[in-house]
Amino acid sequence: MTGSADPSEVLGPFRAGAGRLPPHLAGREAEQSLLRLRLQILRSSAAPPNEVLLYGPRGSGKTALLLWLEEQARSQPGIEVVRLFPSSLPDLRALTEALRRRSWVEQLTGAEAGWRGFRLRFAARGSDPLAEILQRRVSRTPLLAVVDEAHTLDIAVGRALLNASQFVGGTMPFQLVLAGTPHVRAHLRRMGASFWNRARMLRIGRLTEQAAADALVRPLRAEGIRVEPGALADMVRASQNYPYFIQLLGQAVWLQTAGAGSDRVTARILRAALPAFGAERDNYYLDRFNELIELRLVGAARVAARAFRERGPLTHEEVRAALGAEGGEEFQDADARYAAVRHLEQLGFLWQPKPRPFYEPGIPSLMDYVLEAADPGEAPVSGAGASGSAPRRPGE
Ligand SMILES: Nc1ncnc2c1ncn2[C@@H]1O[C@H](COP(=O)(O)OP(=O)(O)OP(=O)(O)O)[C@@H](O)[C@H]1O
Ligand SMILES: [Mg+2]
Predict the structure, then answer these.
(1) 253 vs 117, which has greater pLDDT?
(2) Is pLDDT of 392 > 90?
(3) Does any ligand 1 atom lie closer than 6 A to the CB of residue 57?
(4) Residue 183 near ligand 1, beta carbon < 6 Å
């Protein structure tokens, strides 16, 4: 073992894991063309119309889309890209420093220029040092700033960033793109930057069946592997059109196919790959389930899951009514019902896939997992079957 092997040779083309660019970024054509247009605007040194906000449940591909955008921006000259990490932006000073342009000496040597502190101090005397620094930087080169996990931005830091973006991006080529879980909208609202809701908001949810099929088939085809139609239909169903599961399943299927030395995914190969996929998927469910426990939301999640199974898409009022009727003591209080719906929405457990006030499950098969954890034997919500390895009580 040299340790330098290409991971694709061992793991195949799929990329399961947070923040990995998939081999085929499927079903995001509309978002990609909007983002491409924003890069074009920057390249022509014009000001973009507004900020862009990507939001959606965990594992649906927000980071992947940001990575794709960065790659696009870097693949042609003319735009600088800065990626901001909320976890390393505890305060305004850190943000200012992150947005400051590195001098050529610093770029070459990695060293910090001696007069940096002076410049920051000097700038701090102005009305808005951050906006000034940004303005100075953008006046030289158009700038794209991406912020992932924006729902974790410190409120004061986020407010300063949005204000600076509004100030500079209003007239200069500065594009801010934020991504976060559904909670990010409420988080930005709390920052009190009133214009944030004029940002272009892009919902990043599950894929269409066609896009899920593409995401599975194309990387295999590029490896010379065909998928039989029956097997493909089953793969799409098992993936739930959920990007993270698509990568998990694709990887399990590739390993099985390559292991069998075959150039075709047949029903038999798929059957043999499903246990490995199921085990990984159930690990993911367990994480989500434990998150619900930690947040004391399991009871509410179960009520919502049951209501989905009985009625399909739900309004806010219907979820609250179900909590009142079936949630027990805890949800006799109206505020508690509102809070529970809000938290479930923030986690993406409840998800509004269209610009209409109807919730659907963020991941349908997670509903089954949550219900089966409480009562093994309940009928599935998703039609996919939560799992062969759904949680069972010991001894069953
Ligand atoms: N459009 C897509 N087609 C196929 N696979 C995708 C697509 N988008 C993302 N993926 C894959 O799905 C997985 C999850 O993607 P990603 O980490 O970008 O999700 P996320 O929304 O950022 O999740 P989180 O909120 O947990 O950070 C990754 O393995 C990624 O490669
Ligand atoms: Mg992410």
Answers:
(1) 253
(2) no
(3) no
(4) no
Indicate which CATH number applies to the domain containing 188.
Answer: 3.40.50.300
236 and 299: one domain?
A: no
Residue 225 lies in a domain: yes
- This prediction's pTM: 0.87
Per the model's pLDDT, the better-predicted residue between 393 and 102 turns out to be 102
| Cα 111 versus chain centre, distance | 34
The token pair that represents 153 in the structure block? 């931005």
Contact 144, 79 (CB under 8 A): yes
In the predicted model, what is the mean pLDDT of residues 196-202?
83
Number of domains in the chain: 3
Q: Which ligand is nearest to the CA of 147?
A: 2
Residues with CB under 5 A from ligand 2 (ion): 63
Cα 7 to Cα 10: distance, rounded to the nearest angstrom: 5
**Domain CATH for 299:** 1.10.10
Pairing of strands 226-227, 80-84: unpaired
CB atoms within 10 A of CB 18: 9
What range does the domain containing 188 cover? 29-203
